[in-house]
Specification:
Elements lengths: L1 E2 L5 H6 L3 E2 L5 H40 L10 H11 L1 H7 L21 H29 L10 H25 L16 H19 L1 H7 L6 H27 L9
Helix pairs in contact: 2-4, 2-5, 2-6, 4-7, 5-6, 5-9, 6-7, 6-9, 7-8
Length: 263
């Protein structure tokens, strides 16, 4: 290790580490920044991978049923979720400030994407979103008089599709807060410590309203404003994600100590 300001050229060239400002405290700051960046990348990936299952499930159900169950969401709605509503919260999670425990807890995670992350994103949170979205879609269709194998009216299908779309979007809002930590529930993290996330979720709400209310968008997307019961089921999807997340984190705390790589 060499000093960047007072060290000689020979020392700097042969050193493994050069302190540009000649302060040993910079090493601590660099380690903290590195760990925080690593954790933020995992947050970003967990959030973005989660809704893939919810977006894929309608197409799987449609294909396995031989078309007897209509598509819950359209391809354009999938793009609206990935590029429209999900982008800003994902970026905000990438700017999550370091936890106070970042420097004081050793990490057992050595890879950005590992088995734990994939199971959490796909099997746990993603499956919860998929079940909630498909349930909301089928309940809405059934209330309109549709039966399996039948042909729903364009209006009832648009309302049911909008309900499924809203359920996934609301669940992702909850997921954004759940992804702030791998061991702590959202209630245990100061909500104002990442103002970018609050702004991003606010924009997500505005985009969701626009996709479901502005006529040109509803015609292109294929989903319209849900009924009151539909919004209740959409809110239930968000609650379900938080509940499942809390249960998983509580079980994890009871297991042998695992480092908190994401705050």
């Amino acid at each position: 290790m060499a000093m960047g300001l007072s060290g000689s050229d020979v020392a700097r060239q042969s050193a493994d580490l050069v302190l540009l400002d000649d302060h040993f405290a910079t090493i601590v700051k660099a380690i903290e920044l590195g760990r925080a960046t690593f954790a933020n990348v995992r947050r970003f990936l967990t959030y973005h991978l989660t809704d893939n299952i919810a977006e894929l499930a309608p197409f799987v159900v449609w294909a396995l049923s031989g078309g007897q169950i209509p598509l819950a969401i359209t391809v354009l709605q999938v793009l609206a979720l990935d590029i429209g509503t999900d982008m800003l919260p994902a970026l905000a999670l990438g700017a999550e400030p370091p936890s106070r425990r970042t420097l004081y807890r050793s990490s057992s995670v050595r890879r950005v994407i590992d088995r734990a992350l994939l199971l959490r994103a796909f099997l746990l949170l993603g499956l919860t979103e998929a079940v909630c979205a498909m349930t909301a879609f089928l309940v809405t269709l059934t209330e309109s008089g549709w039966t399996v194998g039948g042909h729903p009216t364009p209006t009832s299908l648009a309302i049911a599709s909008g309900t499924a779309f809203a359920t996934i979007a609301v669940a992702q809002m909850a997921n954004a807060f759940a992804c702030r930590s791998e061991t702590l529930t959202p209630l245990r993290i100061p909500i104002g410590s990442n103002p970018l996330l609050l702004i991003a979720v606010g924009v997500e709400v505005a985009l969701l309203m626009a996709f479901l209310t502005i006529p040109p968008m509803t015609m292109v997307m294929g989903g319209t404003w849900p009924m009151a019961t539909g919004w209740l089921m959409a809110a239930g999807g968000g609650v379900a994600v938080l509940v499942v997340d809390a249960i998983q984190k509580r079980l994890r705390r009871r297991a042998p100590a695992v480092a908190d790589t994401a705050g």
